[in-house]
Write a structure and sequence with these properties.
Length: about 220
């Protein structure tokens, strides 16, 4: 006859007085692992900007193509197109302080500034550069994928009922709901688990960590 099954006691790890990270607050910066050949921080990935470049190229190609055709037609003895004659008459009558001229100049300046910003900024903010282990290989991790990995790690912590993780470029924000255990104990375990998870992501620049733990709200 088999003996009745007995429930084994649960032993919980007691965190240090100041938490596993050596501080009481749940906000810490983690040093990334050494990069190859002393590289301190990998460069961000640059976006191809294919859509803005294609739009600008099509607009310029269409405008200059029509203008070149009209100029060639005039050189061949044909009359100029009506739009060019009307535009020349309007330009002869308009002044620099006219409202239409100022609006057009503002729109053109805004579009030019937008194109300059696109040309000088890397873009792809959702892709986090990873630590380089080979000089000829670069890798990146999408922020949503990194947040999902950290969320799965946080759900393994005892006492966590639900958790929401937001992965930013320089900071990880985790908001958890705990339905049992002391909130300080849950937060300490989340600090340790998420800090290990951040290190294991292999990011070239380790983000900071902010953890908030609360009780579930009352129903009704």
């Amino acid at each position: 006859m088999s003996e009745p099954t007995q429930r084994l006691p649960v032993v919980e790890r007691e965190p240090d007085a100041e938490g596993p990270l050596g501080q009481s607050a749940s906000a810490a910066d983690y040093e990334p692992q050494p990069t190859l050949e002393g590289e301190e921080k990998p460069a961000r990935f640059w976006s191809g900007r294919r859509v803005p470049a294609a739009i600008a190229a099509l607009v310029l190609l269409g405008g200059f193509g029509i203008l070149l055709y009209d100029v060639a037609a005039v050189r061949a003895g044909q009359p100029a197109m009506q739009w060019r004659r009307s535009l020349a008459d309007h330009l002869a009558q308009w002044h620099l302080d006219d409202t239409a001229v100022l609006i057009g100049a503002g729109v053109a300046a805004a579009l030019g500034l937008w194109l300059i910003v696109l040309a000088l900024t890397p873009g792809l903010r959702a892709v986090l550069p990873m630590r380089r282990t080979h000089t000829d290989v670069r890798a990146g991790l999408h922020r949503d994928a990194a947040a999902m990995v950290l969320r799965d790690r946080a759900m393994e912590v005892s006492g966590v009922q639900s958790v929401r993780v937001r992965m930013k470029r320089k900071k990880v924000e985790a908001r958890a709901v705990s339905h049992f255990r002391e909130l300080d104990d849950v937060r300490a375990d989340l600090d340790a688990t998420l800090s290990d998870g951040i290190r294991e992501l292999g990011l070239g620049s380790a983000p900071g960590l902010s953890v908030h733990v609360a009780r579930p709200g009352r129903k009704g």
